[in-house]
Write a structure and sequence with these properties.
The complex is a heterodimer. Chain A is an alpha+beta fold. Chain A folds into two domains: about 210 residues, no CATH class; about 100 residues, no CATH class. Chain A has 13 helices and 16 strands. By secondary structure, chain B is α/β, with parallel strands linked by helices. Chain B has two domains: about 90 residues, Elongation Factor Tu (Ef-tu), domain 3 (Beta Barrel), CATH 2.40.30.10; about 130 residues, 3-Layer(aba) Sandwich (Rossmann fold), CATH 3.40.50.80. Chain B is globular, with a radius of gyration of 19 Å. Chain B contains eight helices and 15 strands. Chain B has a seven-stranded mixed sheet with strand order 10-9-8-7-11-12-15, with helices on both faces. The chains are: A alpha+beta, B alpha/beta. Chains A and B meet through β6, β7, α3, α4 and β13 of A and α1, β1 and β6 of B.
């Protein structure tokens, strides 16, 4: 063994001094680089123009209902887990114009949005977030009708993943089979060391990009350091979700008393759906000029927690918090599988962190599993 | 992965593609209900347009929004596409302001359709409540043509009152084509000599029917459909030959916006017409 196992073969090392060239090269290729930055005491995704925009030396601490940024003892550039933003803010933006109507010569004329889609390079994509993008690919691109906004942005996007080297208390990606290691779905994947990055190539585009940079072959000690850094993320994960028979467990327990108990704590604020990287619900609003002859149709994120979401013909189908929380959890963890052949949850823990009541879906499942009647044939 | 997403997208249909349609005619039906006959302004789009009984269109009034309206008459009897609309909200109210010659937007057709081919060689029972007769009328048209293919055909229709019986002028024509029309009202007036009570009672009393082999299609208020299903199962109808048309908040029409979900089903895309056994687990769960 010389340390170059098959998985590590061909990995390169990019010194932090050379990292600005990556940003410059992406800009030169026409990409807008989006990555982590510190804003209003949170690490969020925004336009990155230089390495100075990165949250160097900052980390996040997460608990149910709690998120705080803290100074690190070192100067790590990607030394946090995940914040309130996810990449859906760029691939499935809100608000966005999906169509237009104009009255011309007395008749209404209709146009689909034909704006040139922006070309994004996403920097700092985590393994759970790659999984979330894959889930939204399934929703927006793989059915007979395709979302043109998502399609235009997604097919042009470049993904530079960065492996997690730490975990939050709210993380449970191993339970969902989505992380913490980035294994596919990226153009390049980085593992941060103190002086640079070990770089893995995922696609031909990634390889071409890397070839323009002044990288060197990763040494055995660099590869070992990267492995150790990634392992520390795995070792820190303490939360789990038992997914065995989960779909049937939830669908067989739609009248479980736990839904009432959860409803007494849930504020129906929709935070969980806004921070969830896979939630895809939207509503279209009409934005008219004063004369009423020109109308934009703007889509905004919507949420099954909003009471009007199910409004129909004089009434709300889901008129209680109990019914709305049940809708969200059963969709995310059960009926999503029926619809798309995958769970809607990637284990990122955002819904736990950003719930003002600290409702933890892993605990909810545990409660339902705990005293759920044993159903034959399931689980 | 990116290449895979690209090729999937290349084959995709465009959800927001909207046609300009012109109001040809507005037919007053019963109180609060009118039928809009809509013709495509672009003749080639009109010629290419195909729908099956039970499907719906999204009608779009710029500035007000869209509403999901089933196509209420099949093409053979109409030069345009007929949509029977009950005023229920902002968009349907705005629609009442249109006059013949005005234009609006149309996306569609969307959703699933009534199982007409499954009816071949079988007795057929249509059960409708109120405006629920509108999505069934194209199916009536299909059952009138090629009548010999089908067994005995019954329409059981319940309305609130004698004056709210939709399409009453056509019952004679349907009867002459061999469809037995049974009506009932919740509240009779002094001239009414027919049945009084819910449509379920008509189903319980129906005798000329081979329930075990018959197909039942139902559209009406959800509570009415639940009782109809219970009565049908009681009479020996098979759960996989009972079909219902469900209504939910629909915005995109193609399963992308999430509003209309019922369990794993997108009612706009996987419905609105469902085989009963597919949605049976959800129909009795309150507020699901």
């Amino acid at each position: 063994m010389n340390g170059h196992s098959g998985a590590d073969a061909g990995q390169r090392f990019l010194h932090k001094d050379r990292f600005p060239c990556l940003l410059e090269q992406l800009e030169a290729m026409g990409y807008s680089v989006i990555g982590p930055t510190l804003d209003q005491h949170a690490i969020v995704y925004d336009r990155i123009r230089s390495v100075d925009d990165l949250p160097r030396g900052w980390t996040d601490e997460q608990q149910p209902g709690s998120y705080r940024v803290r100074r690190r003892t070192d100067d790590a550039w990607f030394g946090y887990v995940v914040g309130p933003h996810s990449w859906k803010g760029y691939l499935f933006p809100t608000p966005v114009v999906i169509a237009r109507a104009a009255r011309e010569g007395g008749d209404w004329e209709f146009k689909e949005a034909d704006d040139a889609p922006p070309k994004f390079a996403f920097l700092g994509v985590r393994a759970c977030e790659i999984a979330a993008i894959r889930v939204q690919d399934r929703v927006f691109l793989a059915e007979s009708y395709v979302d043109p906004i998502y399609e235009g942005r997604r097919t042009r996007a470049l993904i530079v993943a960065v492996n997690c080297e730490q975990a939050a208390s709210t993380c449970f990606c191993p339970s969902m089979g989505t992380g913490p290691r980035c294994t596919s779905g990226f153009d390049l994947a980085l593992t941060e060391l103190s002086d640079g990055f070990v770089v893995e190539v995922g696609t031909a585009e990634g390889a071409a990009l890397l070839a323009t940079l002044d990288s060197s072959e990763a040494s055995i000690s660099q590869l070992r350091a990267a492995q150790a850094a990634r392992r520390s993320a795995s070792e820190q994960i303490e939360r789990s979700l038992d997914t065995r028979g989960l779909r049937d467990l939830l669908m067989d327990n739609l009248e479980h008393p736990r839904w009432d108990e959860t409803a007494s704590r849930c504020l129906s604020c929709a935070n969980c759906t806004m921070v969830c990287p896979t939630c895809f619900c939207g509503s279209v609003e009409e934005v008219s000029d004063l004369a009423g002859g020109r109308v934009e149709r703007r889509r905004r994120w919507d949420s099954c927690f909003n009471i009007d979401f199910s409004y129909m013909n004089g009434g709300h189908v889901r008129d209680s918090i109990r019914s709305r929380y049940r809708q969200w959890l059963t969709h995310k963890l059960a009926s999503w599988n029926d619809q798309f052949g995958t769970s809607g949850c990637v284990g990122c823990g955002r819904c736990i962190t950003w719930c003002p009541s600290g409702i933890d879906l892993t605990e909810e499942v545990l409660a339902i599993r705990g005293d759920a009647p044993v159903s034959e044939g399931s689980s | 992965m990116r290449d895979a997403s690209r090729s999937a997208a290349a084959a995709g249909l465009r959800p927001w593609r909207t046609h300009t349609v012109r109001v040809r005619e507005i037919l007053a039906e019963v109180e609060g209900v009118a039928t809009y006959d809509l013709a495509f302004r672009d003749e080639s789009a009109g010629a290419a347009y195909r729908f099956a009984p039970g499907q719906f269109n999204m009608l779009y009034l710029p500035g007000a929004g869209e509403c999901a309206i089933s196509i209420s008459e099949d093409r053979a009897t109409s030069a345009g596409y007929r949509h029977t609309v009950r005023v229920a909200g902002n968009v349907t109210k705005t629609l009442t302001g249109l006059r013949p010659g005005d234009t609006l937007g149309l996306r569609g057709p969307f959703g699933t359709s009534w199982p007409i081919t499954d009816c071949i060689g079988r007795d057929v029972v249509l059960v409708a409540g109120g405006i629920g007769l509108a999505p069934l009328r194209p199916a009536i048209g299909s059952l009138m043509r090629n009548a010999r293919q089908f067994g005995r055909r019954h329409l059981l229709y319940g309305a609130r009152s004698p004056e709210s019986l939709l399409y009453w002028r056509q019952y004679e024509e349907w009867s002459q084509a061999g469809i037995r029309v049974h009506t009932t009202v919740d509240r009779a007036d002094s001239r009414w000599t027919g049945h009084v009570g819910v449509a379920t009672l008509l189903l319980e009393r129906l005798d000329a029917i081979d329930a075990r082999n018959a197909v039942l299609m139902c559209c009406g208020p959800e509570v009415m459909m639940r009782f109809t299903i219970a009565a049908a199962l009681n009479r020996g109808f098979a759960p996989d030959r009972i079909w219902v048309s469900l209504e939910r908040n629909m915005q995109c029409g193609v399963g992308l916006c999430g509003h209309c979900q019922m369990g794993g089903e997108f009612v706009c895309r996987d419905g609105p017409v469902f085989r009963y056994d597919r949605v049976a687990p959800f129909l009795d769960v309150e507020a699901f």
